[in-house]
């Protein structure tokens, strides 16, 4: 991701371009991006997971950007396009925003609009208080920090209902949508599939939904994102058609590590 960094580490890296390049085999760039979930805001909360508030959200985003020197891009999943956390995430320098429960192209267009300034036909509000001259407002000659943000921030739409699946083509065609994300858990429930434990084979209805989503991705050349760390071996075969893979999470790694340590201690 180093080649996609913005002029300032307080600004979002160009995740939109990085995602676009995964679909272009002639670019010579990586065809896959890897990521992890971070959901434990402070060490004191390791024993009790809870939602991240605005203050911790900003701290996490900036810590990821600064400590990695821009080589790791923070992506934030917000509750909705109307959530106050969206503004905090954008102003903190998030490189991508995941919008859950998007069912229609109109909802997808609203999500894009909330992430773009009026220069790009959006309605994102300018926050002068977060602009530090020479630090957070840097931009190439002839551009501006607003245009840098509009070009770099990736809008990722979660597909996690039968209605969203039916509208996936129209959602993918919305200008400004950079990627689609499979919300397998909610989609499984919405389709009334039997509950699934980690390692269980996937329901045929979900596999059919994934195939439909892959075809949408190919038609519109939009990358697909998905969570991999709860899948078993055979279930992972369809991941070859996904470009942004969330391969672990902090809480899941803790649980898995404790289980493995306990098992080894009893051998």
Give the strand content.
5-15%
What is the number of E strands?
7
Quaternary class: single chain
Molecular shape: globular
Helix content: 25-40%
**Distance between the first and last residues' Cα:** 42 Å
Mean pLDDT: 87
Order of helices and strands: HEHEHEHHEHHEHHEEH
Cα-based radius of gyration, to the nearest Å? 19 Å
Class by SSE composition: alpha/beta
GO cellular component, one term: cytoplasm
Keywords: Lyase, Metal-binding
Protein name: HpcH/HpaI aldolase/citrate lyase domain-containing protein
Domain HpcH/HpaI aldolase/citrate lyase: 62-221
Summarize this entry quickly.
It contains ten helices and seven strands.
Can you describe this structure?
With 267 residues, this protein is an alpha/beta fold. It contains ten helices and seven strands. The chain has helices at 15-22, 54-67, 84-92, 105-114, 145-152, 162-166, 168-172, 184-190, 204-220, 250-265; strands spanning 33-37, 75-77, 96-99, 154-159, 177-182, 224-227, 244-249. The protein has a seven-stranded parallel beta sheet. Helix 3 links the parallel strand 2 (75-77) and strand 3 (96-99). Helix 2 (54-67) packs parallel to helix 3 (84-92). The N and C termini lie far apart (42 Å). Residues 43-49 have low confidence and may be disordered. One of its GO terms (cellular component) is cytoplasm. Residues 62-221 form the HpcH/HpaI aldolase/citrate lyase domain. InterPro entries: Aldolase/citrate-lyase_domain (IPR005000), HpcH-HpaI_aldolase (IPR050251), Pyrv/PenolPyrv_kinase-like_dom (IPR015813), Pyrv_kinase-like_dom_sf (IPR040442).
